[in-house]
Design brief:
The chain has 501 residues and is of the alpha+beta class. The chain has five domains: 40 residues; 86 residues, Immunoglobulin-like, CATH 2.60.40; 34 residues, no CATH class; 232 residues, no CATH class; 34 residues, no CATH class. It contains six helices and 23 strands. A hairpin with a 6-residue loop joins strand 6 and strand 7. The longest helix has 31 residues. The termini are far apart. It holds the Pfam family Secretin.
């Protein structure tokens, strides 16, 4: 139906009614066209967080390709976007009394903004309200089909919490792009490792225990008594005695009773020996773990197998091997024999992870193996020894500079010793009476002591000669230097011939 502009002057009532009907139909036809963008956007699954969910100053997390509605309490005067390639903003709808378009007209009322993320990235959105006041600002993060984390965090637990918050509400299969940075003092960990083999049989004979120590004695103890027990050991060095005597005459006698002091030399010797033993035990327990290891190693009760120092970046692997490779013949095609190599010795693999400035998580996998020719096999006339292996795999969290001990890798070996009289011990049957067979069981335990530390590289301008031992020495006239040195009138900073500083 077509309507023309016709003057109403002199029109009949019927014509006026027809014209009124045409105007009403035209108004109804225009109304859906105005509201079509909002309905279409809602049909596309747009999220409408509302004004309460998008407070000024907050960070908006948007997904590229999905439109979002943001409600404003006041019509804006101006809208600014930091990067139009990341976000597109349109003034979608205003209540009567508000303007339309990028700049609102006169009047006031509620307004909705249509946010259309275009590409992955970050930008800012600033809206100036018509009623004046401080402009409203939002930080907008637009992610693609994957999650994006870009933050500076103080520790690994904070990083895990940030990842959990980012994945909240996202599909489970959405990939994560992690560009976060954790602020720590250093990204390099130095791990000092000591692999020590203790002879438990010898340690039991002298009363040294590795694991029975308390907090103050670094995990070692000596003897069955604590040093405090020595003070409760007392000896009684006085005694009483009774004697009788005959002093009468004419066959009549009388008895006399007396008292005296008896010295107990045996009890004093035992007390002195116990005091000496417990004094040594107290000194041994109070020494540091390095000193204790030196004492045990000097007395043949411990043997340091390896003392490596490894450096690794956080999250990276580091390994160490002190030993060799054993060639093992294996069958191959056409009856040939191939050679495979098997590693043996002291092997260590570790992975440090820096949690914060003071906490380090460490995964350690030590292994100690040696050749056992008694359990070997013979292949094509070649004897291949077996490999005895002791292995552990553990993880621990500790502070910078703390140590922990991995133990429990026990090995037992039985040996036989034959002592006999020459010639007579070799006689059949009768030789048994002239020889002696002793069996000895030795028990050893492998202990790994690990100490991680956060380290920093030295600056390029550092003078390394002053840090290396023996790098600098000065030879001068010995007569003019040694005399003041021995007399005590020499400055401590003065170099002495033959000494490095």
């Amino acid at each position: 139906m077509k309507c023309k502009n016709i003057s109403t002057a002199g029109a009949t009532p019927l014509q006026r009614a027809v014209w009124t009907l045409c105007g009403s139909m035209a108004l109804l036809a225009l109304t859906p066209a105005v509201s079509a963008p909002a309905d279409t956007a809602a049909g596309q699954g747009m999220a409408n967080p509302g004004a309460g969910d998008m407070l000024p100053g907050e960070s908006l997390q948007l997904v590229a390709g999905r439109q979002h509605l943001m409600a404003l309490a006041d019509a804006p005067v101006r809208i600014a976007v930091g990067d139009p390639n990341v976000l597109d903003v349109k003034l979608l709808r205003a209540t009567p009394g508000s303007g339309s378009g990028a700049s609102a007209g006169s009047g006031s009322g509620g307004t909705e903004l249509l946010l259309t993320p275009k590409a992955q990235g970050s930008t800012s959105l600033v809206v100036w309200p018509r009623k004046g006041g401080v402009p409203q600002r939002w930080e907008v993060q637009v992610r693609g089909q994957h999650l994006l984390l870009e933050k500076r965090l103080a520790s690994v637990p904070e990083h895990a919490q940030a990842v959990a918050e980012l994945r909240l509400g996202a599909p489970a299969q959405t990939p994560l792009v992690d560009n976060a940075q954790i602020d720590v003092r250093s990204n390099t960990v130095q791990v000092d490792v000591q692999v020590v083999e203790f002879k438990k049989s010898a340690m039991k004979r002298v009363g040294v225990n590795i694991y029975s120590g308390g907090r103050n004695n670094q995990g070692f103890s000596f003897g069955s008594f604590s040093p405090g027990v020595v003070g409760s050991i007392s000896t009684n060095t006085s005694g009483t005695g009774t004697g009788t005597g005959n002093t009468g005459s004419g066959g009549t006698g009388s008895g006399n009773t007396g008292s005296g002091s008896v010295s107990n030399n045996t009890s004093s010797a035992i007390a002195s020996a116990m005091s000496l033993v417990m004094t040594f035990g107290k000194a041994f327990s109070g020494a540091g773990i390095v000193t204790q290891l030196s004492i045990l190693e000097g007395n043949g009760m411990a043997r340091v197998l390896a003392r490596p120092t490894l450096l690794a970046q956080t999250g990276q692997n580091a390994s160490f091997l002190a030993g060799g490779e054993l060639p093992i013949p294996v069958p191959a095609r056409d009856g040939n024999i191939a050679i495979q190599y098997k590693e043996f010795g002291i092997k260590l693999q570790l992975t440090p992870t820096i949690l914060s400035d003071e906490r380090i998580a460490l995964k350690v996998s030590p292994e100690a193996s040696d050749l056992d020719f008694n359990s070997g096999v013979t292949i094509s006339g070649v004897t291949v020894p077996a490999i005895r292996t002791r292995r552990a795999d553990t993880s621990v969290e500790l502070a910078d500079g703390e140590s922990f001990v991995i133990g429990g890798l026990v090995s037992r070996a039985t040996t036989s010793n034959v002592s006999k009289v020459p010639v007579l011990g070799d006689l059949p049957i009768l030789g048994t009476f002239f020889k002696n067979l002793n069996y000895t069981q030795e028990e050893t335990e492998l202990v790994i002591i690990v100490t991680p530390r956060l380290v920093h590289p030295l600056p390029a301008s550092t003078n390394l000669e002053a840090l290396l031992p023996g790098a600098r020495s000065e030879q001068r006239n010995a007569g003019k230097v040694w005399l003041p040195y021995l007399a005590g009138g020499m400055n401590q900073d003065t170099a002495v011939p033959g000494f490095s500083y």
